[in-house]
Amino acid sequence: MASERDSSASRTLSDLVEELLEHEGPLPIFGAGDPVLRMAAQPFDGQLDQGLLARFVAALRATMHATPGVGLAAPQVGVPLRLAVIEDPAPVPEEIRLARARVPQPFRVLVNPSYEGVGAARAAFFEGCLSVPGYQAVVARPVEVRLTAWDERGLPVDEVFRGWPARIVQHETDHLDGTLYLDRAEPRSLSSNWAAAELWGQPTPERAAQELGFTLPG
Ligand code: ZN
């Protein structure tokens, strides 16, 4: 019974991805409120064959570039698999790069990722999500995390990420557990993209915290 159910679920996910890839251009992004963003995604165990996985990863990457974003998780395109891509060229001024530790993150595929915080240090910054368009909010997160995952070739990954890349890893892995950044955000920090850019574009969110009335870690 279990194996029958498994194989039927595998066919469904594979068909779903094949259908998605039939269309040209960036994949449509699912927005908050869709249940696919609130469920635990299935661990990847070969539901997509190697060729389909490679095509899906390429489509996720192209969609991430087009939107643009620095990470994209499979549930955000309606596919409940534990799979995400990250990439951040970090085109930011030096002052912001230093304050936020926003160093470039080369393209990576995260298969079945999970993370745990390393040490007690936390950092709070505005972040946004392609599935919650138009808004940003401040999220306090561990500065360092240990990521365990596989890469797209099935090789094990066990690596410590720091600074902004660690934030991206956490945000995307959270998607695979049905968690949105808003679940972890300071509610009073919620800002339109306009406000985030025009009022709270400082390297750190200290002024936003004072004027909007929320607290920062440390
Ligand atoms: Zn997101």
What does this structure look like?
This protein has 218 residues and is α+β, with helices and mostly antiparallel strands. It is 34% helix and 24% strand. It is built from 7 helices and 8 strands. Helix 1 packs across helix 2. The chain binds zinc ion. The site of zinc ion has 5 residues, from helix 4. Zinc ion binds next to helix 4.
CATH hierarchy: architecture:
Alpha-Beta Complex
Low-confidence stretches at least 5 residues in length (pLDDT < 50)?
none
User: Any ligands, ions or cofactors bound here, and which?
Assistant: zinc ion
Helical percent range?
25-40%
Care to count the β-strands? 8
Question: Cα-atom Rg, whole angstroms?
Answer: 18 Å
In CATH's first tier, which class applies? Alpha Beta
N-to-C order of helices and strands: HHEEHEEEEEHHEHH
Principal-axes shape call: globular
Straight-line distance between termini: 52 Å
Class derived from helix and strand content: alpha+beta
